[in-house]
Design a protein that fits this description.
The chain has 177 residues and is an alpha/beta fold. It has a single domain, classed as Rossmann fold. Helix content is 31%, strand content 18%. Helix 2 runs parallel beside helix 3. The longest helix has 13 residues. The chain starts with 9 loop residues before the first strand and ends in a 10-residue tail after the last strand.
């Protein structure tokens, strides 16, 4: 993990369990993050993001009303979203491979299993900050590239044109440059 200055980040922690919100918030503050906002529901988180854009969201998956996954999908697709590219880390006690696939296909950047630890929180935070994945737009999906493969730097005559759907935060296609 690099020497990133976490004190510049603004992080939103969303969980309907006050103790879990406080735990994650305290761990993030221990990493030097000065601005940690909290929301007790997906709806409250959405309202917070509209008036106070953040750099990263930690969201519990299972909450009454809008779930963390529904919040992620709204962040990615709503016309009024403040930032469709914001990294979202889903926090959940449900860690089956099916749940992991659903989260990945829902536009989540990272998956964090409960019980959380400072080491796992820092690992996921570092992943979205120091090694962000490109975003992809298709007819049925918008979100981080679901593949974790390292990009191939081969540009020879047999190179496939797969990057046509990769979108940068500025909105341009990766091939436009």
């Amino acid at each position: 993990m690099g020497a990133y200055r976490y004190d510049r980040l603004k992080v939103l922690v969303v969980d309907d369990n006050q103790h879990m919100r406080k735990l994650v918030s305290s761990i993030l503050q221990a990493f030097g993050i000065k601005t940690v906002l909290e929301a007790a529901s997906g709806e409250e988180a959405w309202k917070t993001l509209l008036i106070n854009p953040c750099d990263v969201v930690f969201a519990d998956w299972v909450m009454e009303g809008m779930t963390g996954l529904e919040l992620t999908q709204k962040i990615r697709t709503a016309p009024e979203t403040p930032n469709a590219f914001i990294p979202v880390i889903i926090v959940t006690g449900f860690t089956s491979l099916d749940k992991l696939r659903i989260a990945r296909d829902g536009g989540v950047n990272e998956f964090l299993a409960k019980p959380v630890s400072p080491k796992t929180i820092l690992s996921r935070l570092s992943a979205v900050i120091e090694n962000p994945r490109s975003f992809v737009r298709t007819k049925s999906y918008f979100g981080p590239c679901r593949r974790r493969l390292q990009p191939v730097k081969y540009h020879g005559p047999e190179r496939r044109v797969e990057e046509a759907n990769i979108v940068t935060p500025g909105g341009a296609s990766a091939n436009a440059a």
